[in-house]
Amino acid sequence: MPQSLLIRGGRVIDPASRLDARVDILIENGRIAQVGDGLKAKNAEVFDATGLVVTPGFIDIHTHLREPGREDKETIATGALAAAAGGFTAVCAMPNTTPVNDSGSTTRFIIETARREAIVRVYPIGAITRGSKGEELSEYGDLKAAGCIAVSDDGRPVQNARVMRRALEYARTFGLPVIDHCEDLDLSKGGAMNEGAVSVALGIPSAPHVSETIMVERDVLLAEYTGSHVHIAHISTAGAVDAVRRGKARGVRVTSEATPHHLILTDEAVRDHDYDPVTKMNPPLRSEEDRKAVIAGLLDGTIDAIATDHAPHTTEEKICEFDCAAFGIVGLETAFALCHDGLVKTGLLDLTRLVQLLTLGPARALGLPGGTLEKGQPADITIFDPAEVRTVKPESFRGKSRNSPFVSRTLTGWPVATIVDGVVVFRAR
Question: Of residues 153, 154, 290, 309, which has the active-site annotation?
């Protein structure tokens, strides 16, 4: 690999250091050496970033890589390719693998495979409970020692409040955030989309938004009681945003994330797509009121990060009746373009805040390295063209799966290069 890389002429946005200026970045031996005007370096490879925006590398704290166990959907290698194409230099791998990542041995397999095959950084997340069954806690010390950065039962919410309390207390001992998918399964049982006028009109079994809100209220209270850190995954309702907002105001250690699809779409998408299961996800797409509330949470700091919830599935799992289809969509390759086009271009969010939500925000939320371009930091960098227009085409996806509701949508603003540890691992042109 080249010992030096000079990124020249780009608009550099680094929210961590409050930098927004047209400057150069010199990378040496995989780290940020200098940021400033008119930098020069002998024998350095030069990347001309004229007309482009240069930021810290995007970090996705909610990714499903499916390996081990479901390599037909995605692998660590293909998921990393998709991440790099979307501008992400690091991803956090959810534990819903086969076997579930509830032990140090599975964690080590993920880390060793990523070291050999992934072109971006991969941070494993361990399971809160053994087998993610919600009953017996996993061995957090073993998970932490093996390399896990948080614990979560992913799409299986911790239903039992006593188990959630013990998880929070145990995780605090090891400095691990507890990430919860907040859903009351008794309320949402059998639901395939959000309960409301659209579900009634379409005749699709539905789940009420309070199913999420109730569990977020519980988790915030338990985090307050235990003094532990809870992270709310893919927040999607107005009530849940309000619960996190009030918790933060009281000093509770609560962080949260939102997904691009919940920021851009509503449950009307199910009707617009003629019952196509590419619009089936969990949490389901919500009402316009909820969507606006989540955006408000981005603006006022209630929500700390944007995360993709990248959930690849086989074609067979999605080409079937809506009720029977798998939940989830792919998101790594379209996340930035969707947010830039749907939030920044429309004036709902400024560009610096979007960059913060993809870099510094996720890094701080889960205590990860990165999120900044300060001198001496690892040279993980994303470069994007805010003016590039591209149409979402599934045949161009680097990941294995194609389950996206955004196919054929034309978006403005796309990553054009991704740099990890000073090496250009993706370049669109």
Answer: 309
